[in-house]
């Protein structure tokens, strides 16, 4: 698939839209709010620019990115108030692939980035892949991305045999049955993409500028094919395979689909950052997130617990549909999507009765190293 053309979150504000089904992404961002605000303030302090230029990479079509931008602005303004100086202008650069529903983002600007008389805030849309250059050299003070960098620039190469037959049959992503060649291909694609991402941002950022990235990942020591890391893709593959057995479409349709996605470990992220060499790691850790992460509560036993887990299953099914439906429609057929995700939700309910309804994320905060004098 051509990822740049196919991948986009479901636009608009309907029942299956990303705007209405991105609660877990909002929670993920909320869990690291204090770190993000602190890093943004340090980025401002490093050079005290008249205009603080902030890039939000993978803004999508809901309100999450705008809420993050608003929180960053608030933190910098509070810092200026404490230090007795005037706050800077703020330039918010909202980036996503060209197929993103930017109109929905722009319609929320006045509500989410309401400018007070003392706040000069400007926002622009920047369509394009963050795996290439997006901004002028040394123009960015702070870069943020949440729930985006687990998407690869393309489906990994070398996942077919010498006769061009798929090696990862019956699966959409890495699983316990995935051959070593496929595991290596996925990691190689992540390594290549993330290294190029860092190279591009290093050219675009000012010395001492900061970048905070949060994306789906794995705990320290966790293997790429662990159930916790890939269960949402495994269960989606199972739903599709069940439908092939009932004649909805041939099995080859599933065999020939591979997700342009990779959930790296903390160690893998660190390895690429150190190898690329333009950034110093300030924060690097894995953390768990779930819909009840902010309250940290659990429901009761028996039927109450079943209903509780079923609610998580419904939200996860809707979330996965909002982010992956564009790719599935391009490969399968649009009219089967309702059936696919009804089955998927049922499988998630069974899974959550035995496992925690949570996802693991990696957060990394980086500081742009000073450029060497010529």
TrEMBL record:
- EC identifiers of the protein: 2.1.1.141
The keyword Secreted belongs to this UniProt entry's keyword annotation: no
- In terms of superkingdom, the source organism counts as Eukaryota
By its UniProt entry, which InterPro entries does this protein fall under? Answer: MeTrfase_7, MeTrfase_capping, SAM-dependent_MTases_sf
Give the molecular function GO annotations. metal ion binding; methyl jasmonate methylesterase activity
What are the GO BP annotations of this UniProt entry? methylation
> Which Gene3D superfamilies does the annotation name?
Methyltransferase, alpha-helical capping domain, Vaccinia Virus protein VP39
What is the protein name for this chain? Jasmonic acid carboxyl methyltransferase
Q: Which UniProt key words apply to this protein?
A: Magnesium, Metal-binding, Methyltransferase, Transferase
Q: What residues form the membrane-spanning segments?
A: none
Any Pfam family: Methyltransf_7
């Amino acid at each position: 698939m051509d990822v740049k053309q196919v991948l986009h979150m479901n636009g608009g504000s309907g029942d299956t839209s990303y705007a209405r089904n991105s609660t877990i992404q909002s929670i993920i961002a909320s869990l690291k709010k204090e770190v993000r605000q602190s890093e943004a303030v340090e980025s401002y302090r490093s050079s005290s620019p008249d205009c603080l230029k902030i890039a939000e990479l993978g803004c999508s079509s809901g309100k999450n990115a705008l809420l993050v931008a608003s929180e960053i602005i608030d933190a910098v303004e509070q810092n200026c108030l404490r230090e007795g100086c005037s706050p800077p202008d703020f330039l918010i650069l909202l980036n996503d692939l060209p197929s993103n529903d930017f109109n929905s983002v722009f319609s929320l600007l006045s509500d989410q980035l309401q400018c007070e008389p003392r706040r000069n805030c400007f926002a622009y849309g920047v369509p394009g892949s963050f795996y290439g250059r997006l901004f002028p050299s040394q123009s960015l003070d702070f870069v943020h991305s949440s729930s985006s960098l687990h998407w690869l620039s393309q489906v990994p190469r070398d996942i077919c045999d010498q006769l061009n037959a798929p090696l990862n049959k019956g699966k959409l992503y890495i699983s316990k049955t995935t051959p070593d060649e496929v595991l290596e291909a996925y990691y190689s694609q992540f390594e290549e993409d993330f290294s190029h991402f860092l190279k591009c941002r290093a050219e675009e950022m000012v010395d001492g500028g900061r970048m905070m990235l949060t994306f789906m990942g794995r705990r320290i020591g966790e293997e790429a094919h662990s159930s916790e890391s890939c269960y949402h893709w495994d269960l989606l593959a199972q739903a599709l395979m069940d439908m092939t057995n009932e004649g909805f479409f041939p099995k080859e349709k599933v065999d020939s689909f591979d997700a342009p996605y990779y959930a790296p470990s903390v160690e893998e992220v660190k390895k690429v950052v150190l190898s690329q060499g333009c950034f110093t790691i300030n924060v690097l850790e894995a953390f768990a997130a779930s819909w009840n992460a902010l309250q940290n509560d659990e429901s009761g036993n028996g039927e109450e617990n079943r209903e509780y887990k079923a609610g998580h299953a419904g939200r996860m099914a809707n979330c996965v549909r909002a982010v992956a439906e564009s790719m599935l429609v391009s490969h399968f057929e649009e009219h089967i999507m309702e059936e696919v995700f009804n089955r998927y939700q049922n499988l998630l309910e069974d899974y959550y009765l035995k496992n925690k309804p949570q996802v693991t994320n990696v957060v990394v905060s980086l500081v742009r190293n000073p450029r060497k004098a010529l």
